[in-house]
Amino acid sequence: MSRFRLDLNSFFTIINIMKKARTIIIRNPKLRKIRNNLRKILILENVARGEKISAREREISLDKDGKLRSLTTGELREASRLFRESSKYSTSLRDSICFCELCLSTDKDMSYIPRFRRWFCVDCSKELEEDQRLLLEEQANFKI
Ligand SMILES: [Zn+2]
User: Which residues make beta-bridge pairs with 113?
Assistant: First the structure.
């Protein structure tokens, strides 16, 4: 008789894999169009803010010849704040439902996969879930 042993990390990994993906499906074409346009607006605004921050970072850190220059304490503080703000924008966009991280689609229904803490389009999420199911089977077979 084989004995099934599971360490704590594997246990939580399996629990996360087993959590079901949440899918948001919009069937009404008019609502789909509104959703897609809202996503595009949010992405464009996020990109615009990121570019504004980058422009300010270049303004602070480069001299008029485009070479790095030493910064004052106040400029260092501002550069640090800009970096944190820029990271916040890129993280919030990546975590959002606005696009699929794998295929970059902005006009599909999306599924949230708890294991990745990310939204993926329904097509990519099906592939990911299948990959996870196969991985789980392999892990279970290996440990028995
Ligand atoms: Zn996708």
Answer: 118
